Amino acid sequence: MTWAIIAIIFKILGAIGLLFITAGVLDKKALRRNYLFVFGGIFLLLYSSYLKDPVFIPLQTIFTLASIYEIYQIKRVRSKE
Q1: How many Å apart are CA 2 and CA 57, to the nearest integer?
Q2: Which of 3, 17, 64, 73 lies in the 20 to 30 Å Cα band around 46?
Q3: What is the DSSP string of 21-33?
Q4: Residue-by-residue DSSP string for 3-62
Q5: Torsion of Cα atoms, 32 then 35 then 37 then 43, to 10°
Q6: Total structural domains within the chain
Q7: Model pTM?
């Protein structure tokens, strides 16, 4: 696989991540919104890692972990109801 194809693949992953996060922002259901954030964050983390961006790699890591924690909190509250 050539470097040009690899670059295109990572750009597509980044675009998919952006679409997932945009869908999450527009979604009204908290649990589904956070799942969209997790998937979007992972795709953008892959793209950021490809770019070796020292700002966006930790940003996406924290964003994704925060969304995972929010899913945990939502499920914990719902299990008590």
Answers
A1: 24
A2: 73
A3: HHHHHH---HHHH
A4: HHHHHHHHHHHHHHHHHHHHHHHH---HHHHHHHHHHHHHHHHHHHHHHT-TTHHHHHHH
A5: -140
A6: 1
A7: 0.92
Coil/strand/helix, residue 66? helix
Q: What contacts 24, CB < 8 A, 6 or more positions away?
A: 32, 33, 34, 35, 36, 37, 40
What are 30-63's pLDDT values in tens digits? 999 999 999 999 999 999 999 999 999 999 999 9
CA distances (Å), origin 53, targets 4, 9, 12, 25 = 19, 17, 17, 24
First vs last Cα of the chain: how many Å apart?
A: 52
Domain housing 45: 3-80
Residues with Cβ within 8 Å of 59's Cβ and at least 6 positions away in sequence, in order, are 48
